[in-house]
Amino acid sequence: MGDYAGFIIPPRPPHPDFDASREKLQRLGEAESGQLTKEEFNKMKQELEAEYLATFKKTVAQHEVFLQRLADKLSACLLDIATLENSNLESFLTKLSDTFEKMRRIEGRVANDQDLKLSDCLRYHMRDTNAAKDLLYRRLRCLANYEKANKELDMARTRNRDVAIAENSNTRLAPPLKNYLALLSLS
After folding, report:
1. DSSP 3-state assignment of 156?
2. CA-to-CA distance for 140 and 137, rounded, in angstroms?
3. pLDDT tens digits for range 94-153
């Protein structure tokens, strides 16, 4: 008590309560054996993930507040400590320096984790967007080929030349376009 006399030490943050998540996880594991439909299983899984993430974020926020309060208290007292002449001062300042260094590393890791998550998310959406652009290009190319085949068929009928070739080309290009249009109506 003598080493910390005059210092206000904030209470430690509460431990996360994952009991409800554990129970749901256990039920989810039991449900994997076929007791739930796929939709019910996926819904329960999403609820569990959301609940766990919310509990985790709440715990991180509480710990962040604790560390911030601790750092604020220590930094407010540094000026007072600097004027003290005490044989224990050197060891205290060494421990304080180590604590600040650990906090800096933790903050860096958290920032790196967030950057990695955001960059992974961005890469995923970039690939998803490219896939959508590729699909759009294929659909437009198919439509353009079909329209070109129709024009060639009309011209062949008008000139009464190569009608069979133009009809064959038109017939060959119609099914892919119908498939794309069918897929479009589903989405």
Report:
1. helix
2. 5
3. 788 888 888 888 888 887 777 878 888 888 888 888 888 888 888 888 889 889 988 998
Cβ atoms within 10 Å of 149's Cβ, excluding its own? 20
What's 116-142 look like in SS3? HHHHHHHHHHHHHHHHHHHHHHHHHHH
90 contacts: CB under 8 Å, gap ≥ 6: none
Give the tens place of pLDDT for each residue, 35-74: 777 888 788 888 888 888 888 888 888 888 888 877 776 7
- Alpha carbon of 144 to those of 73, 147, 150, 174: distances in Å? 71, 5, 10, 11
Stretch (H or E) spanning 151: helix 89-159
What amino acid occupies position 63? Answer: H
Residue 73: strand, helix, or coil: helix
Q: Give the C-alpha separation, 93 to 99, whole Å.
A: 10
How far is Cα 97 from Cα 89, in angstroms, rounded to an integer?
12
Find the radius of gyration of the CA atoms of the chain.
33
120: tokens are 């992974």
Q: pTM for the complete prediction?
A: 0.40
Amino acid at 108: G
